[in-house]
Amino acid sequence: MLPQRVIEQLIDIVGESRLLFEADDLQRFGVDRTTLWQAAPCAVVLPGTVEEVQSIVRLANQCNLAIVPSGGRTGLSGGAVAKDGELVVALDRINQVIDFNPMDRSVTVGAGMITGHLQQFAEEQGLFYPVDFAASGSSQIGGNIATNAGGIKVVKYGMTRNWVAGLKVVNGAGDIIELNKGLAKNNTGYDLRHLFIGSEGTLGLICEATIQLARAPLESSVMVMGVENFAEIVDVLTCFSRDLDLSAFEFFSQQALDKVISHRGHTEPFKTETAFYALLEFEHSSPDILDKAMALFEHCVDVGWVVDGVISQSQSQAKNLWKLREDISGTLWQWQPYKNDISVRISRMADFLEDVDQLVMEQYPDFEVIWYGHIGDGNLHLNILKPEAFSVDQFHSKCVNVSEEIGQLLAKYEGSVSAEHGVGLLKKDYLHYSRSAVEMDMMRSIKRAFDPNYIMNPGKLFD
Fold it and tell me: What residues does the FAD-binding PCMH-type domain cover (predicted)?
């Protein structure tokens, strides 16, 4: 419970209506999309300016009050969970377009802007914001930056980090810092901007971001192919990426497709059922590109990698094919899945897939396992669905044991325990499989420099 004097000071900063104590508000703002922890913040505060954020952080330092930053709360690793009486600072109100410069092809926005709104703004300017994923309709730019969000276009456009030209942040000590100021070239020592990208709110609060925009893409075609063997998806990727400039290369299993068709009412891409499906997208400016794509498809069929396939004949059909992949994550939530978000280099993917598949068959013989992911950048999403007879605690205990073994495999293949969802609470016990002891000590030193009193998102990333 917050002391009355702290309540009064917070009200002085943001106004009484922007300080929330109701149980529904604490629950809504106190957790992300993980289901393993209960929301238990002391309050939720909704600042409307960077200066108000600064005042809140300085007050928190005076009172030794821990802060959990809150964006769209679409995270999957517990990074936005407030379970120990923390103050949730939600950036929802800092959501405006602050500046747009068509010459620089950049836009400065508040951290609370919804990702989809930024995509829409870019489109209205004849431009493109390429970071895209299933939660773009509710995730916020600040949260995307804090977790270095990836998504379905990484194979061509890269992660969020590639598009952040500048940041305005309030660090854990309560200082307002402007980082890089939108410059394309700025070779003046350490680029602190990149420390905040992917920091998961442990160094401070991202308040504003200058985002680089891209040219609008050309018309795209989408192809879905049926593949029987897991490892051969990588062969298909290698074949197509050698001759086509792919903007996406995704995959999903038959089980994932069955769930989406059953619960979303979508139509199967073709009548032939296969164990796995590869979905790829490419821009085309001439019939030659389409001819090349069809020739590559026919080659994949001839060598036995692909069983069947379809290519979009219109933009509406392309969108419908994408829904088969994009709607998987939202569909699976009703089974409270335990998610593994992992990655290795594409050159090691085939061997890694074989080892993980064997591990899953041995450890989860009675569990339903759903595979999908952004395989074009080496990112796999392994989802284990909770059986109805299991409690959440029983299910989590079983899955944790296997996460250790997956971590050991990732260490062997020099991969990552978190490709794009962040570490948060969920993955911090496995961080040592991807980061050395020296690296982790350096990360703790960086946190001390930005957050000397350890008030920013404590317990996340590492203890």
Answer: 37-216
- Give the count of beta carbons closer than 10 Å to the beta carbon of residue 306: 25
The whole-angstrom separation of Cα 300 and Cα 317 is 23
**Is residue 285 over pLDDT 80?**
no
Q: What is the DSSP string of 422-444?
A: --TTTSGGGGGGTS-HHHHHHHH
SS3 89: strand
Tally of CA atoms within 13 A in the half-sphere of 357 that contains its CB: 13
Residue pLDDT, tens place only, 183-239: 999 999 999 999 999 999 999 999 999 999 999 999 999 999 999 998 899 999 999
The answer to whether the CB of 204 falls within 8 A of the CB of 169 is: yes
3-state secondary structure labels for all residues of 101-135: ECCCCEEEEECCCEHHHHHHHHHHCCEECCCCCCC
Residue 451 pLDDT level (bands cut at 50, 70, 90): very high
Q: What is the DSSP letter of 114?
A: B
Residue with tokens 């993955």: 427
Contact (Cβ atoms closer than 8 angstroms) between residue 177 and residue 203: no
Structural domains in the chain, CATH included, are 4-92 (3.30.43.10), 97-215 (3.30.465.10), 220-329 (3.30.70.2190), 336-445 (3.30.70.2740)
Q: What gap in Å lies between CA 284 and CA 244, rounded to an integer? A: 10
C-alpha to C-alpha distances, 326 to 42, 249, 252, 259, nearest whole angstrom:
35, 12, 10, 12
Packing angle of the helix pair 4-14, 50-63 (nearest 10 deg): 170
pLDDT of 287 strictly over 90: no
Identify each DSSP E strand in 229-376 by its residue range: 246-253, 276-283, 308-311, 338-343, 369-374
- The Cα 159–Cα 356 span in angstroms is 25
Alpha helices by DSSP H, listed for 303-419, are 315-326, 328-332, 349-363, 392-412
